[in-house]
Write a structure and sequence with these properties.
Length: 406
C-alpha cells in the first residue's frame, strides 16, 4: 500500500460523510474523507444551528427502527467526542419534546401516532383544549388534533459534524477540506478518485455529496432535485414562552381533510409550491446554548424552489418572511416578532421524498447515500454505521432495504 492508498474514500464529509468517516475510523479502517469546502459550512444542507429529531415518523414507519437505534448513536458520538477532547459542556442533543398539531383529519398527526405506537415510542394524543392548557403559546382551533412526543427534540448539526470529524481524526482518519473531487472510477482491485489536488486509491468508495450528488454520481439513474429552502429566526414577544423546554419543538400540519392527499403528495412536488397544499410549518425553540442567530427558528416543509447548488442564491425575500410571520401570528403569536435573521438551506429531493442508501449501479465497491429530502439529519449516526458496514462488508444488518435505489 502506498501512502495514498486507503481502505475507504468518502466524497463529501458533511452530515452523512462525517458520520461514515467516524464509524470507519473507529473500526480501525484507513479512511480518507474529502470535502470541497471547510466543514461545517453554509453552502449545503447542514447549517442553521438546529435539526429536529423525532422517533414517530409520519413519512413511513420503516424509518422508526433506524431512529430508535440512532438514540444510542447520538450518546456514543457525544461520549467519543468528549474522549477526543470536545467540550463536555456543549451537548449535541436536547429533548424538550416534539408537538405535532394538525387540522381535523391530519394525516401527519395520525401517521405520527401510528408509526410510533407500532414500535413502542412514548407519545400522548392531545385535543385542542389540552394543547392550549399545556402549551398556551399555541392558538389551536377547537376541532384540531395533536400528539406530543416527550422524548424527542433537536440536535446541533454543526456541532455534531465537528464531533464526528474530531473522533474520525483522533482514530486515524485523514480529512481533506477545500479539495474538490472531480471524478472517480472503479479499477480492477478497488477505486480511484481524482481531485483538484491529487489522485487517491482505495478498496471502496462512499459518495455522500448532498446537493451536489447529481454532478458526481451521474450514473445513479434517479432524479435528484436540489431545492432552495428559506429559514427565518423570529424574535420572541415573550422570551420565556419561546424557550426550551417550555416551548417544545413543533410541527403544524395546516392541511384540511378535504385536501389531505395533497398534504402527502406535497412530497412529490420537486419544482415549486403546490397551490392546493399548505406546506407544513415547523419550529425550534430558543435555548441557552443557541448562540447566533437568536430567536425561534421557523421554516416551511413542502415548499422550495429548484436550484443548482453552485448557482448564486437569492436571499430570503421580504415576502417569504412575511408569509411565515403571518402564519405564526395565527398559531403562535408569542413567537411572531421581527425577523432577526434568515438563511437559505438546500434540500435534495427524490421523487418520493425517501432517501437512497445503496450500491452505485454496476459498481461492486461504490456506495451512495443521498436524496435526504429535507429530513435526513436525524439519521446521521445510524446511517454512518450502515455506510461503514457496506463499505467494509458489502452488506449491513441494519434494516435499510427500503432505501434501495428505485
Ligand atoms: C432548512 C432545512 C431544514 C432541515 N431540517 C431538518 C430537520 O429538522 N431534521 C432532519 O432530520 N433533517 C433536516 N434537514 C435535512 C438534513 O439537514 C439533510 O437531509 C442532511 O443534512 C443531508 O446530509 P448530506 O450529507 O446529504 O449533505 P451535506 O451535509 O450538505 O454534505 C454534503 C457534502 O458533500 C460535499 N461535496 C459535494 N460535492 C463534492 C465534491 N465534488 N468533492 C468534495 N466534496 C463534495 C459538500 O461540500 C458537503 O459538505 C433540513 C434541511 C434543511 C435545508
Amino acid at each position: 500500500m502506498n501512502s495514498k492508498t486507503f481502505s475507504t474514500i468518502v466524497i463529501g464529509v458533511g452530515t452523512m460523510g462525517s458520520a461514515a468517516c467516524m464509524q470507519l475510523a473507529l473500526r480501525g479502517e484507513r479512511v480518507l474523507g474529502i470535502d470541497r469546502f471547510t466543514v461545517p459550512h453554509a453552502r449545503g444542507s447542514h447549517h442553521g444551528g438546529s435539526r429536529i429529531i423525532r422517533d414517530c415518523y409520519f413519512e413511513l414507519p420503516d424509518y422508526v427502527p433506524l431512529l430508535l437505534r440512532t438514540r444510542a448513536g447520538w450518546d456514543a458520538m457525544e461520549r467519543n467526542a468528549i474522549a477526543c477532547g470536545a467540550d463536555p459542556m456543549l451537548s449535541l442533543v436536547q429533548r424538550p419534546g416534539v408537538l405535532y398539531v394538525g387540522a381535523p383529519g391530519s394525516e401527519v398527526v395520525a401517521r405520527s401516532q401510528s408509526s410510533g405506537a407500532g414500535f413502542g415510542v412514548v407519545c400522548e394524543p392531545l385535543d385542542a383544549r389540552e394543547v392550549r392548557a399545556r402549551f398556551p403559546q399555541f392558538h389551536i382551533p377547537d376541532d384540531w388534533t395533536a400528539l406530543f412526543e416527550p422524548g424527542s427534540g433537536f440536535v446541533r448539526p454543526e456541532r455534531a459534524i465537528e464531533a464526528a470529524l474530531q473522533v474520525a481524526r483522533a482514530h486515524g482518519a485523514e480529512i481533506h477540506q477545500g479539495e474538490r473531487v472531480i471524478e472517480w472510477s472503479e479499477t480492477a482491485t478497488g477505486v480511484r478518485v481524482r481531485t483538484d489536488r491529487a489522485t487517491y486509491e482505495a478498496q471502496s468508495l462512499i459518495i455522500t455529496a448532498g446537493a451536489w450528488t447529481p454532478d458526481i454520481a451521474r450514473t445513479l439513474g434517479m432524479a435528484l432535485t436540489p431545492l432552495r429552502v428559506p429559514v427565518v429566526w423570529l424574535a420572541p414577544l415573550d422570551a420565556a414562552m419561546c424557550a426550551s423546554p417550555r416551548m417544545p419543538v413543533w410541527y403544524i400540519d395546516r392541511v384540511n381533510a378535504s385536501n389531505q392527499n395533497d398534504a402527502i403528495n406535497m412530497y412529490n412536488l420537486p419544482t415549486s409550491r403546490n397551490a392546493n397544499a399548505a406546506p407544513g410549518i415547523y419550529g425550534i425553540p430558543t435555548a441557552p446554548d443557541q448562540g447566533e442567530p437568536a430567536g425561534v427558528k421557523i421554516a416551511l416543509h413542502g415548499a422550495g424552489t429548484v436550484c443548482h447548488p453552485d448557482a448564486p442564491r437569492e436571499s430570503v425575500t421580504a415576502q417569504e418572511i412575511a408569509e411565515i410571520q403571518s402564519i405564526m401570528a395565527e398559531f403562535i403569536p408569542t413567537a411572531a416578532g421581527a425577523a432577526v435573521d434568515s438563511a437559505i438551506c438546500l434540500y435534495t429531493n427524490t421523487v418520493d421524498q425517501h432517501f437512497v442508501v445503496d450500491q452505485m449501479p454496476g459498481c461492486a465497491r461504490v456506495w451512495i447515500a443521498c436524496g435526504f429530502s429535507g429530513h435526513g439529519f436525524k439519521f446521521m449516526p445510524v446511517l454512518g454505521e450502515a455506510l461503514a458496514d457496506l463499505a467494509t462488508d458489502g452488506a449491513t444488518p441494519l434494516p435499510i432495504e427500503f432505501l434501495a435505489r428505485r
